[in-house]
Every structure is written in structure tokens, then in C-alpha cells.
């Protein structure tokens, strides 16, 4: 897939980009405004209330931080922030060529919550031996859940990369995950959270290709009212998949018919 994805304002990737862009600007303004109104610590005050404390005792007094930690950002690295938005845009739109907006929200929220809950439990176990402190925050685990899910859903899909030519998606995803973990520095609970996000996305993709959609476990539906006709039989060929991807890249996922969407979903479950 060599075409650059279009920017659909109402899509899940665009809404996440607008959300985090607005949060980044808000945090930056607060970092200047809070000291002027008497909070000399600046954003440290915000982090104390929104970041996930790695102490079980502290978490019990701030349980909402398991969710708010996903939306907490540093404002001292704007270049890194913009790079993450580009990755979100590319992989978010790539995911939508096979799945839907709700899948991206599922991976982002559940992947982030699950990762932070995991390190909180690990912290609770280690605190039995030694005192554990510190905080964890950021959308990193959610981002790696998205990247790993894309790599697991369509590992053999080829991307046209500048300077590198055509590279299979599984290698692109693997390199991005490893680079993210390495740049975090020495191993820590924050590193473990990122690794947990990647593991969640990868196993989601594996289970989906085996016919088990984790997303449906959180959807309360009447099977009689939401029944879907079985997909067209026969393996999806590379030519058919290329045609569907070209249509999505030019006209958007919404332009596909129900049958075409089923064929795309079928392609994500098979080895081409």
C-alpha cells in the first residue's frame, strides 16, 4: 500500500489526534499559568492527580488515574509528540482498512488500561519485598497496542517506505515496538507497561485471525437483531485485496459495500 492515507475528520485516528493535540496545548498553557496563580510546582500538581501512582496505597486514593494516565503528556518534547501523532495517523488509518473505528478505540483504551493495571499489580507484588514509588503515564502502551495489532492482523502486507522500498508490515511494526522500548531507557515498570501494550495488540490480532474478536466481549447486542450474513466463500486473492485497499485509500472505508467490508475482514483472518 503505497498511497498516503486521507485525513477523515470524523474518523477515530483524527479524533484521537485532535484530542491529544488539544491536551498538549492545554498542558503547555497550564505549565505557564499555574505558577502565576500560586502553584509553584506547575504541572507537577497536575501529574500528582492524573498520573498513575505505582504504590497500591496511593492508587486506592486516586483510582481514576488508571484511566487519566493514558491522556497525560509531557510538553518538553514537541518533536517526539509530533512524530507520535504521525505514527497514530498512519497506523490508525491502516487499521481502518480492515477494521472499524470502534476497534481503534478498543485497542487504545483497553490496551492502555490493561497495561497500566498489569504494572500496578506487579508493583503491588514487589511492594511486599520493598517499597515501590513513582508514577506511570502517557499513551505509549496504547500506541504500541495499535502498532502490534496492525502487524499481527496483516503481517505480510507490504508498505512503500521512503529510502527502504517495499517492506512487510510485520517488520515495520516489530522495529517500531523495539525502538520504543529501547528509547525508554533502563528497564522499569514504565517499560513493562509499553511491552504489555504491544503484547495485548499482538494477541488481539492472533485471536481475531482465529475467529475470536475480543472487542465483541464488551458489546451487549441482541444476536437476532444484529445478525450478519456469512462472508463470501473463497480465499481473498492478492489482486482482490489490492483493489479493495486502493478503493479505501482513494474514497475512504465508508465507500465499501457490506460485502466488500466482509471480504476485507476475511482477508485479515487469512494468510495471503
Strand content bin? under 5%
Q: List SSEs in N-to-C order.
A: HHEHHHHEHEEHHHH
Please give the share of residues in helix.
55-70%
Tally of separate helices:
11
Average pLDDT rating = 82
**Structural class assignment:** mainly alpha
Number of strands: 4
The unreliable regions are 220-232
What is the subunit organization of this protein? single chain
What is the CATH topology classification name of the largest domain?
Rhomboid-like fold
The shape is globular
Rg from C-alpha positions?
Answer: 20 Å
> What's the CATH H-level homologous superfamily of the largest domain?
Rhomboid-like
Q: How many domain units?
A: 2
Known CATH architecture of the largest domain: Up-down Bundle
CATH class placement of the largest domain = Mainly Alpha
Explain what the structure shows.
With 272 residues, this protein is mostly helical. It is 60% helix and 4% strand. The chain has two domains: 208 residues, Rhomboid-like (Rhomboid-like fold); 39 residues, no CATH class. Strand 3 and strand 4 form a beta hairpin. It starts with 11 loop residues before the first helix and ends with a helix. About 5% of the residues have low confidence.
Please give the structural blueprint.
Layout: H1 12-36, H2 43-50, E1 52-53, H3 56-61, H4 65-68, H5 78-96, H6 101-126, E2 135-136, H7 140-153, E3 158-161, E4 165-168, H8 169-182, H9 189-209, H10 238-251, H11 258-268
Amino acid at each position: 500500500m503505497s498511497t498516503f492515507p486521507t485525513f477523515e475528520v470524523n474518523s477515530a485516528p483524527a479524533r484521537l489526534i485532535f484530542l491529544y493535540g488539544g491536551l498538549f496545548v492545554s498542558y503547555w498553557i497550564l505549565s505557564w499559568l499555574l505558577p502565576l496563580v500560586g502553584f509553584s510546582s506547575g504541572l507537577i500538581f497536575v501529574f500528582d492527580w492524573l498520573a498513575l501512582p505505582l504504590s497500591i496505597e496511593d492508587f486506592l486514593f486516586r483510582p481514576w488515574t488508571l484511566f487519566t494516565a493514558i491522556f497525560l503528556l509531557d510538553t518538553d518534547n514537541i518533536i517526539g509528540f509530533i512524530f507520535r501523532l504521525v505514527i497514530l495517523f498512519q497506523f490508525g488509518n491502516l487499521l481502518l482498512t480492515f477494521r472499524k473505528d470502534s476497534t481503534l478505540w478498543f485497542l487504545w483504551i483497553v490496551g492502555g488500561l490493561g497495561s497500566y493495571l498489569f504494572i500496578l499489580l506487579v508493583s503491588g507484588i514487589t511492594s511486599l519485598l520493598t517499597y515501590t514509588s513513582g508514577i506511570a503515564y502517557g499513551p505509549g502502551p496504547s500506541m504500541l497496542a495499535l502498532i502490534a495489532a496492525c502487524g499481527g492482523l496483516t503481517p505480510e502486507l507490504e508498505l512503500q517506505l521512503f529510502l527502504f522500498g517495499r517492506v512487510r508490515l510485520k517488520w515495520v511494526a516489530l522495529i517500531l515496538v523495539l525502538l520504543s522500548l529501547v528509547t525508554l531507557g533502563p528497564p522499569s515498570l514504565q517499560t513493562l507497561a509499553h511491552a504489555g501494550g504491544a503484547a495485548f495488540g499482538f494477541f488481539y490480532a492472533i485471536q481475531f485471525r482465529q475467529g475470536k474478536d475480543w472487542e465483541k466481549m464488551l458489546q451487549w447486542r441482541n444476536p437476532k437483531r444484529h445478525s450478519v450474513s456469512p462472508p463470501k466463500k473463497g480465499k481473498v486473492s492478492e489482486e482482490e485485496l489490492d483493489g479493495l485497499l486502493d478503493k479505501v485509500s482513494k474514497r475512504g472505508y465508508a465507500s465499501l459495500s457490506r460485502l466488500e467490508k466482509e471480504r476485507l475482514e476475511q482477508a485479515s483472518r487469512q494468510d495471503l
